[in-house]
Amino acid sequence: MPVRKKNELSKDCLKQYKYLSLVGAAGAALIALFVLFYPPMPGVADQGDFYRVMAVTGLGKVTTPDWYKYVTTEYKILPMNYTRLFGVIPTTSMIYPIFLARQAAIIIGSEYFSTKILALVYTVMYISSLYMCFKWLRFKRVATGIFFVALSLFILMDGNYLVWFNSLYGEPMMFTGLIIFISCFLYVSKHMEEINVKKILLLFMAALLFLGSKPQVFPALPFMLLIIFRIVSLQRDFVTSIEIKSIFLAASLMLIFYVGGIYLQTSFTTGIDTEYNSVFYGVLKGSEDPRADLRKLGLPEDMALEAGKHSYLPKNQYVKYVPRSELTLREFNDRISNFKLLKFYLSQPARLIKGMEYTASKAFDTGTSLGKFEKGEVKEYTPHLSRFTLWSNFRSTIMPRSLAFIVAFYALVILTSIIEYIRRKDDMESRLQIELLWLIIIIGLLQFPMPYIGNGEADTAKQLFLFNYTFDIVFIVVCTWIFNRAYGMLRR
Question: Domain boundaries in the chain?
């Protein structure tokens, strides 16, 4: 009788997992059909962000959009610079699903680009990645696998996630890109004995899709490079090859160029507004001594006149420093930086903690006040979605929105995962999965302070979108770990 390797599952168990992953994907498809494609089809209204994506992907307005209140789904198909597809000009990774949706619209003879087709593209990408996660993340107990798949569908297929697919926001590319990377990492870690250049490049391409989605994920770049290097370094014979080292270095530099280019481009546009918000609607809002704060930041003290104002007010609401005016650009934007803001908060930890408490109060809410339907599909402005939103409703109403809860939750998860990591010193696959969990935690925690430090109190809930998504993944892992332990004890 052949002896199985450690952690290798029986043929019957593997067959059950094959069916389980297919059932999970089918369940995800049914949920998506109900949430997204059952009329009237929901989406997310534009709040003025779409123009940045439209400008680089060859899309134009058909009609003047109903800002904030109603969804717009049709756009003109304009000429596009195809060199952007190859990264020659760093461009948001949204260009790839948008390009597929453009081509689909052209093939079916449509005069316009439709975000409804884009939603279908995102749905296929997302469910395919979930299927790969279900397939390659195998547990010794099939009951644990069933629990994991069911809980993942309940949480990760929540309507307040899927609804973003029918829009031109970067959020859907961000969490879809993350799931793609997770699925690719699980696949590669499952085939460490067969690792080759193609598998390593697969990880780089998946990382590009995630890191290129939005500038706010830029801080995750070194950690993603580190975990890819970790995979490569485990194969010592693989690493000693000069050719492989050259390929890894070239791929790393290309990823840095691509993601860094997107970050720098955005800093010259939206960075102007977020810098304004970070100081006037963050540091100075509620400050006991605004002039002293401005001195510490190296800014003119008369800017205290604009304390508590964000960058989206009518021009007549500002006393002197109007956002994007020549004076403000020269005296404020040219003199402020993220480094100065970080230094300011680190020198005043009490202010930083207060800001993080405010951020925590806005966490766990993936719903928005933006309209969810087209104007002709509903009688009135509808900001709330009620299709398969049980989890997001529970999380936003029951989950404690406090800094103490978030710190305690992640501290317990990290401590427990370290203990499990030490226990599994002879199980490299499990160790890699724990390292992947650490990466997800790092990505999420990097997102937590960024909204307040970089944008003040403006649009905080939306800026925490990725933090909420990574929290959900960690929550699934925690619940699955508890279930597995409890089930094992009951079976003894």
Answer: 275-347, 351-364+399-492
Alpha carbon separation from 407 to 44, 411, 471, 489 (Å, rounded)? 31, 6, 12, 29
What's the pLDDT band for 5 if we cut at 50, 70, 90? Answer: very low
The per-residue pLDDT for range 110-121, each reduced to its tens digit, is: 999 999 999 999
pLDDT 10s digits, 37-77: 999 999 999 988 899 899 999 999 988 777 889 999 999 99
- What pTM value is reported for the model? 0.94
What pLDDT sits at residue 83?
92
- Phi and psi at residue 7, in whole multiples of 5°? 70, 0
Instruction: Tell me how far apart the alpha carbons of residues 382 and 438 are, in angstroms, rounded to a whole number.
Output: 38
Quick: pLDDT tens for 201-251.
Answer: 999 999 999 999 999 999 999 999 999 999 988 877 666 778 778 888 999
- Which residues, in sequence order, are CB contacts of 57 under 8 Å at separation 6+? 80, 91, 92, 94, 95, 98, 99, 102
